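USER: Study each token:
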Amino acid sequence: MGEVGQQQPAGWRAEAISGFARSELFEHTFQEGMDLVEETAAYLDGPGRQDSKLLSRNAALAYASESMRLTTRLMQVASWLLVQRAVREGDMAPQSAAGAGYRLGAEAEMAVAAEALPAPLAALLGRSERLFERVRHLDLRMYVETAADAAPPHPVLSQFERLKDAFGG
């Protein structure tokens, strides 16, 4: 049978997931994520409070909304990164990390005029969005493609493969 019906051995993806958690890319991403969490907390608890007091009513509402999105996004990323670290340290099985409760969820889109927000908040938002997208890409590569790799072939495609094999096409 052709490639469509072939499956990787069960431990293959677990090894790849564990390998990622031990990689330099993971170390860099983990450090960047934790640093951004700390930087964001310091801004929101310090200068951000002062910045928000200087805003118009509508801009203050946008500030509150965006700061909530920012902290939610960073908590999702931090949680995902901590799960990967738990895999690396042997505190969690790679298969467990694939569970829906540990996966990175989709983010709701919300457009706020960046000029209405203080520059430091806008910068943190941009950095957190880029980090979230990188981590989301990693999550999809590691866990969604894992499910696709392990899924049985589509019945119609399977029949086409059998016909192709039978007739030498």
Q: What stands out?
A: The chain has one domain: 9-167. The helical segments are 10-21, 24-45, 47-53, 57-88, 94-97, 119-150, 155-167. The CA atoms of residues 53 and 76 lie 28 Å apart. The first helix runs from residue 10 to 21.
